[in-house]
Design goal:
Bound molecules: pyridoxal-5'-phosphate, 2-OXO-4-methylpentanoic acid
Oligomer: single chain
Radius of gyration: 21 Å
Shape: globular
CATH topology of the largest domain: D-amino Acid Aminotransferase, Chain A, domain 2
Number of strands: 19
Order of helices and strands: EEEEHEEEHHEEEHEEEEHEHEEEHE
CATH architecture of the largest domain: Alpha-Beta Barrel
Structural class: alpha+beta
Length: 354
């Protein structure tokens, strides 16, 4: 079958839709019925196809398995109150995907394949978009080096895939974060601002240690002195100190988050005092001592905006009150209203696929 945009499509004969309990969605557990696949070889992208979600086959020498040329994006599609489906900020995720690909010396993907392919896939699997509160269809575009060759070099062949899967809340309760002062996630000049797989692999051991100590995740600090707050495992950070909404500035060691950008855009436009600037651990400790820190949040596509209840610094736990009606909770509500169609999409963030 060919779709309206001419993408060759093979439909699944075994939909898994009925096997999913949409009221108990575990993050990362379920995948929808179809995926989009496109291959790059001989210097060009070939026609994408939509096929049933299935395992991949590759050579043991495929370069991605050895030297880390893998890049992904994390996006969401939402069910709107009128029943239609909306993909959030495609262009911003596309830009970041290509930025990551350039840094990892991989072939860039044309906008038509990324956007049209995603819209087509979403139209086909739109019944997979949950309508439960705090749930969404997670959209995972990714690319890997598929050339079979084991010398160290940039691959000449790549595979681009988009799959999707319904997800619920990442964190069901406020989180406990450990400030990491021994290991680092990223350094100036490194790959921290990209979504390459290695950033996540390198974070796993320190995160495991933090979990063993009773925390949910780590807050990374700068690679030089471990004195400035960067971001969390898969989330950016927001603080409310002295009535101001603060976040570390984007840099090449921090992922430029789309959720953070969206929340700060709404904040600035609704009169919240926003500062993106370096935040030292001393400033945070002093704010706890003086009682001037009111809120701390992890923000990201998967986490949306999750309140932090404990920040552990050098073995001491600092506790935050969790407020239902704070500044960030208000911004989160405004963001959700844009996504679900309750509020006007004044920023053109929604792509409605019907
Ligand atoms: N930081 C890291 C390391 C991430 O993996 C993510 C998730 O994508 C974020 C921050 C938040 O970015 P976004 O809001 O674009 O999902
Ligand atoms: C996201 O928030 O989209 C992420 O990429 C987090 C992910 C690593 C689960």
């Amino acid at each position: 079958m060919e779709t309206m945009t001419g993408i060759k499509t093979t439909l699944t004969r075994n939909s898994k839709l009925k096997e999913v309990d949409f009221n108990h969605l575990e993050f990362g557990k379920y995948t929808s019925d179809h995926m989009l696949v496109a291959d790059f070889y001989h210097g060009q992208w070939n026609e994408p196809q939509i096929v049933p979600f299935a395992n991949l086959s590759m050579s043991p020498t495929a370069l991605c398995l050895h030297y880390g040329q893998t890049v992904f994006e994390g996006m969401k599609a939402f069910r709107m109150i009128d029943g239609r489906v909306n993909i959030f900020r495609i262009d911003k995720h596309y830009e970041r995907f290509n930025r990551s690909l350039r840094r990892m010396c991989m072939a860039e993907i044309p906008y038509e394949i990324f956007e049209e392919g995603m819209k087509e896939l979403m139209t086909l699997d739109k019944n997979w978009v949950p309508n439960q509160e705090e749930s969404a269809l997670y959209v995972r575009p990714f690319m890997y080096a598929s050339e079979a060759r084991f010398g160290v070099k940039p691959s000449d062949e790549y595979r681009f895939i988009i799959f999707t899967g319904p997800v619920g809340q990442l964190f069901s309760k406020p989180v406990r974060m450990k400030v990491e002062r021994e290991y680092i996630r990223a350094a100036k000049g490194g790959t921290g601002s990209t979504k390459c797989g290695g950033n996540y692999g390198g974070a796993m051991y320190p995160t495991k240690l933090a979990k063993e100590q009773g925390y949910d995740n780590v807050i990374w600090t700068d690679a030089g002195e471990h004195n400035f707050i960067e971001e969390s495992g898969a989330m950016n950070l927001l603080f409310v100190i002295d009535g101001k909404l603060l976040s570390p500035p984007s840099s090449d060691s921090i992922l430029h988050g789309v959720t953070k950008d969206s929340l700060l855009t709404i904040a600035r436009d609704t009169g919240v005092d926003v500062e993106e600037r370096p935040i030292s651990l001393n400033e945070v400790k002093t704010a706890f001592k003086k009682g001037t820190i009111a809120e701390a949040y992890c923000v990201g596509t998967a986490a949306v905006a999750s309140p932090i209840e404990v920040i552990g610094i050098d073995g001491e736990d600092y506790h935050l009150p969790v407020k239902e009606k704070g500044i960030v909770a208000g911004l989160k509500e405004k963001l959700e209203n844009i996504r679900n169609g309750t509020a006007e999409d004044i920023y053109n963030w929604n792509t409605i696929v019907g």
